[in-house]
Structures are given as C-alpha cells and as structure tokens.
Design goal:
Bound molecules: (3S,4R)-3-hydroxy-2-oxopiperidin-4-yl beta-D-xylopyranoside
Radius of gyration: 20 Å
GO molecular function: endo-1,4-beta-xylanase activity
Protein name: endo-1,4-beta-xylanase
Number of helices: 11
Keywords: Carbohydrate metabolism, Glycosidase, Hydrolase, Polysaccharide degradation, Signal, Xylan degradation
Strand content: 15-25%
Family: Belongs to the glycosyl hydrolase 10 (cellulase F) family.
Domain GH10: 20-336
Distance between the termini: 8 Å
Order of helices and strands: EHEHEEHEHEHHEHEEHEHEHH
Number of strands: 11
Structural class: alpha/beta
Length: 337
C-alpha cells in the first residue's frame, strides 16, 4: 500500500477484466493498482511463451531462428506504459522459466536453445530498456532437495544456463537490476530446509563467480493450512534469518509473489482471517527489519483475480475481496509497513 512510509516496491500484477460489461470493474481495478501500490509486475504475458508465438511449419535443428517465433509486445507495452504514466515502477517477470517457453524450444539442439535463449533475453530487455529497470532473470531452477532441477534448459545447455542468463542480461542492459527468483525458499532452518539452503548456496555460488546478480526473490506463496514440511509457513524469524544471510552475500532480497491461502485451514472463518492477517503482518514486519530487504510484490491484490483459483482451488488469498473492498488482511499489511 502506498503511503509515506511505504517500502519502495509494494505492487501487484496486472489483470484485465475480460468482458466488456465490466468497464466499471476495470476502472476500479486500475484505480486501486495506481493508488495503493507503487509498482507492478505482469503475471503472465511478459514470459517467453506468451511474448513469442511459435511460427507454423516444421521446426528442426536446421531451422533458422527467423523461422521459429514471432514477438508481439503490444499487450505488455500497454500495461508497462500505463504503469509508467502513473509514476509506478515495473518489474520484468521472467526471462528464463522452463514452464513457459515457446513450443519450438523443445525441438531444438542444445546450441540452438542457447542461441534462442540469448536472443530472447536481448530482444526482450532491449525492447523495454529504459522502461523496465529490474528483471527476474531466472525462475524456479531448484528441485525440492536444493539441487538444480533437470528442466529443459539444464538438459539442453547444462547447469551453466543460469549464469549465462545473468551475463547475457547484464550485457543486454548493464543498468538493470537482476534477480534470481524461486519458491519454498523463504525460511532458514524452517520448512523446505534443503531447498532454502540450496537457494542460498546457488546465490553464493553466483556471487563467488562474479556473476552479475543483484537480488533474490522469494515468492512466498503461503498456505495457512499447510501441515507437512513442504506446505508449512516459515516463522517470521526464519524468514528474517534467510534474508539476513542472503544480504551478507551483498544481495538485496524481495518477497516477489506473496499470497496466503486459507481455505485448507481447519478452522472457523474468523480464525482463518486472523491466521491470514498474522502471516501477512508478521512475515512482512520481520522482513522489514533486515537492511537487505528491498520490496514486496503480491501475486494479485483482489480475490476476484487470483491464480490460486485456477491452479489450486477456491480460496481468498489476497488483500481486497471479490468486490474490490479492503479486507482485514489489507490493514494487516498496512500495519506492517
Ligand atoms: C503463474 C500465473 O499466475 C498464471 O496466470 C500463469 O498461467 C502461470 O504462471 N511462480 C511464478 C509465476 O514465478 O510466474 C507463476 O505465475 C506462479 C508460480
């Protein structure tokens, strides 16, 4: 939420109310984004696949790059330029993520993937240079045990793909703030300990190799009803200590995609609300005590538009309700800032 004490980057992603009859809802959406937050991150459309549409026709290891994909920046230009017109910052999400690559990438040789990924980074960062000054460069490279997951980039390019992406991103825009982003890494010596340690060790390795990396994003997709080690929410102290040790590497740390699911918590509606408020408040308040902490992005702001409903189940994980009214969790976040 924007106020004189607000931290530099409290933001949401952008959504469009699809049906025409929702004009007032769209205006309400835009009004809240531009008055309550000071930055946006685009939830889906700035990823490689949505930006670069695979061209029709056969694709194999000899197909020239000009026959692979066609970039269409119009949709993202509109959102980025709208945010900038409101005096907001824009975080670019995300240049390299195995989940949303264009279909053609799977058909390419390792050398071609390397060439295409480099081309994508230069094309995209070049297009937005001067407008988007911070980027999630690589997303979710870690397996639950903290090792590097053998995703398409690992398989095609080897483990060096991560540092290659950061070096290309720095070359594409030497002024850009470059971030590595991941999930279930938020607490030191807490739930998902192996992955959280893997996150720290990955960052430490990049810093020790003088890779141009400036920040780390911890997604914070929390489930208040989580009971096993993979699902439990880390304590505020565990989050504080994770930020602290990453800060000691010389990196900034942000919470990049926060939302707090409550529907699986076996409790009354009142207790669910209190649990959601406490997680938002206490985690953010603890993070703010660390010098390295430089911002928080929510993954959406209204329960009307949350990825949780399409990816998980019906839930109310955010800080505005379905009718764009402030929830108690809004005030919990505001009290923490
Ligand atoms: C999700 C979006 O919310 C969905 O709309 C999209 O279809 C898939 O991606 N971690 C990430 C985000 O880094 O990019 C993902 O966003 C959610 C998990």
């Amino acid at each position: 939420p924007k106020d004189e004490e607000s931290i530099p980057n409290a933001t949401v992603e952008c959504h469009h109310e699809e049906s025409s009859g929702q004009e007032t809802k769209l205006n309400k959406y835009a009004e809240i984004v531009s008055t309550e937050f000071n930055s946006i991150v685009i939830e889906h459309h700035l990823k490689w696949g949505p930006l670069c549409h695979t061209l029709p026709g056969p694709i194999n290891e000899s197909t020239p790059s000009t026959r692979l994909g066609r970039y269409d920046f119009a949709h993202c230009d509109a959102m980025v330029d709208w945010a900038l017109s409101k005096g907001m910052k824009v975080k670019g999400h995300v240049l390299c993520w195995h989940v949303t690559t264009p279909e053609y990438v799977e058909k390419l040789s390792g050398d071609q993937v390397r060439e295409e990924l480099k081309r994508h980074i230069f094309t995209t960062m070049g297009h937005f240079r001067g407008r988007i000054k911070m980027w999630d460069v690589v997303n979710e490279s870690l397996a639950p045990d903290g090792s590097l997951a053998e995703n398409i980039f690992y398989r095609k390019m080897g483990p060096s793909y991560i540092e290659e992406c950061f070096r290309w991103a720095h070359e594409a825009d030497p002024t850009a703030f470059l971030i590595y982003n991941d999930n279930k890494v938020e607490g030191m010596n807490g739930p998902n300990k192996e992955k959280a340690d893997g996150f720290y060790n990955l960052l430490k390795g990049l810093v020790n190799k003088s890779v141009p990396i400036h920040g780390a994003g911890m997604q914070a997709h929390f489930n208040a009803g989580g009971t096993n080690d993979r699902q439990r929410v880390p304590t505020p102290l565990q989050v504080k200590n994770q930020i602290k040790r990453i800060g000691e590497l010389g990196l900034k740390v942000n919470i990049s995609e926060m939302d707090v699911r409550i529907s699986k918590l076996d409790a009354s509606a009142e207790v669910k609300t209190l649990a959601q408020n406490q997680i938002y408040h206490d985690i953010i308040a603890a993070a703010l005590t660390e010098q390295a902490f430089d911002g928080i992005w929510l993954w959406g702001f209204t329960d009307r538009h949350t990825w949780v409903k399409s990816f998980y189940y019906d839930d109310s994980p955010l800080i505005f309700d379905e009718n764009y009214e402030r929830k108690p969790s809004y005030f919990a976040v505001r009290d923490a800032l």
